[in-house]
Amino acid sequence: MKIEILDSIMGSGKTTGIIKWMNDNPQNKYLYVSPLLTEVDERIPYECEKLEFVSPNTNEHKTKGDHLKELLKSGCNISFTHNLFTSLTKEHLRLISSSGYTLIIDEEIDFIDQYQGDDYKKADILTLEKSGHLEVDESNLGRVKWTWDSDKFEEGSNYDKLKRMCDLEMLHCAKRDRSMLVLHLPIALISAAKRTIVVTYMFKGSIMHKFMEMKGVDVEDFTEVKLIKTEGQVKYEAASLISLERTRSMMTVYNNPKRFRLSSSWYNDTASKEDLKVVSNALLSCCRKHKKGEVIYTLPKSVVKPDSGKAKVRIRGYHPDDCFLYCGTKATNEYSNRTAVVHAFNRHPMVSVMSYLQDYGFPIEADHFALTELIQFVWRSAIRDGKPISLYLISERMYKLFNSWLDGEEF
């Protein structure tokens, strides 16, 4: 089993190149998967007109998954989103396999993620494990197996969801702590296709890369596309468009990284009200140099748009509904008119995911994760259209990572 990687920087022409490659090879059947709805509904069908791409919809079907099944049976070329791809059923995968599709995945997909449900705590897992109702198979990458005798297990209990995840072989656990649960997507999402090509940037060392290594999937370069720009050219042009700016209030935070760690746990658990007020003032000092419609900013969503209660960080005049964007966002072009980018988040991988991969011998580099996500976030802005932007990096670590990358340092 293998996947091929077209690894190139944003703006180098890799999407244009893969579209040309598909048009030049009409003998293949294609599945094109992208995080962007505009890509799958508009760009791919328009620019691959002769290939007659179809995007699943609910016009005549109950769900997009039902429509996708019919399109697969008909052998159509199909473009659809990451969300639909990660919810494919065994029947979808059987049809993909029998038709010999070439799968193209635009941008990496999180094949492993932290289990974020509040349904089950560490005590639940330990209790069920000690009572013999489930086991953690460390010889099988920590897979959580449901062993409760089905004749004695009553459906409709509080553990129904847990049992389903175990039965689907999705739930796994780190060695060090039973509370560190992660979810795997089935590797059949990759193996069902005749050929799988991932279009991305900085794949080596990424979470998806480590997951593929762990699952024994070979990774090869995809070299059948001619790019229009080198990485050096793109970085040179970007450097002339990006103005790394600072304010006095921002530097109060930047120069005190031990006090203002700006990590998710710091914002949510450690920071005092005074600390959060200083960060709010720092953000405001950056934002107020620009009009509201020009700004995007990021920090943990929980502190600016909490599910309940008051926001811990408020930026007067720049409401999060207008200006906030989650730092890991890929599936949008809606902010390509924003010329001021404010980043106040010292990013790290999810602790459960990082610990799990390390426990099983596939550690990820926290700086690599932080940098790749930061680059993607910056490229949500007007720079993606070749327009100048002002960039405010309030975390010392994130500033140094980005500046080193822009100067050509390898990561």
Explain how this protein is built.
With 411 residues, the protein is an alpha/beta fold. It has three domains: 2-110 and 186-221, Rossmann fold; 113-184, no CATH class; 231-406, Rossmann fold (3-Layer(aba) Sandwich). It is built from 18 helices and 15 strands. Strands 3-2-4-10-1-11 form a six-stranded parallel beta sheet, with helices on both faces. Strand 6 and strand 7 form a beta hairpin. Helix 3 (64-74) packs parallel to helix 5, helix 11 (248-254) packs across helix 13 (273-287) and helix 17 crosses helix 18 (396-406).
The CATH class name of the largest domain reads Alpha Beta
Radius of gyration: 23 Å
CATH architecture of the largest domain: 3-Layer(aba) Sandwich
Total discrete domains: 3
How many helix segments? Answer: 18
Low-confidence stretches: none
User: What is the β-strand count?
Assistant: 15
Major sheet details:
6 strands, parallel
Looking across the biggest beta sheet, what order are the strands in?
3-2-4-10-1-11
Mean pLDDT: 94
CATH topology of the largest domain: Rossmann fold
- Class from secondary-structure proportions: alpha/beta
Helix content: 25-40%
How much β-strand is present in the residues? 15-25%
- The gross shape turns out to be globular
Q: State the end-to-end CA separation.
A: 27 Å
